[in-house]
Amino acid sequence: MAMNKSDYRERCLEAKGEQCTICDATESIIVHHIDGDRENNDLDNLTPVCRSCHNRIHGNHPDYREWYEKLEGEAGPAFAQAEALQKPIYIREEAWNEYDDSLALDVRKKLYDMDFRDYDRRELHEATLLVAAEHPELIVEKFLKIRGEL
């Protein structure tokens, strides 16, 4: 018996969380068929994305083309979204863009080159904070540079 849209959507969101796998948005989440086949409702062919990212994927937007071509499904994140804390971060746009570009262009490329594709953005955020916790001297150095003290 064929699965209807609400069934596979519910199953995907229950298994993978109601958060966009591209930008981490939690509003207007829909389910994307990775291989483009709407009849293939296997869980490994489904991924939650926000409506904005979904439109860009199907619009062949340059920023999403590589992500779409490389995405082959997910094994699931190291921890469930329910375990994740959502804390505000106050940061200037320039610094956020540099961080986000580094994740998108450098970190994800290195993970892809290592044939590692089954990760979630929140795992990258956690790894970022753990690196910062392990190297407080780098935080102090960067802080002093920002303040013009170095």
Automatic annotation (TrEMBL):
All copies of domain HNH nuclease, residue ranges: 7-55
Keyword Hydrolase listed: yes
Top-level taxon of the source organism: Archaea
Any one Pfam family match given in the protein's UniProt record, by short name: HNH
One GO molecular-function entry: zinc ion binding
InterPro entries: DUF7970 (IPR058276), HNH (IPR002711), HNH_nuc (IPR003615)
CDD domains reported for this sequence: HNHc (cd00085)
The entry's keywords: Endonuclease, Hydrolase, Nuclease
Protein name: HNH-type endonuclease
Source organism per UniProt: Natrinema versiforme JCM 10478
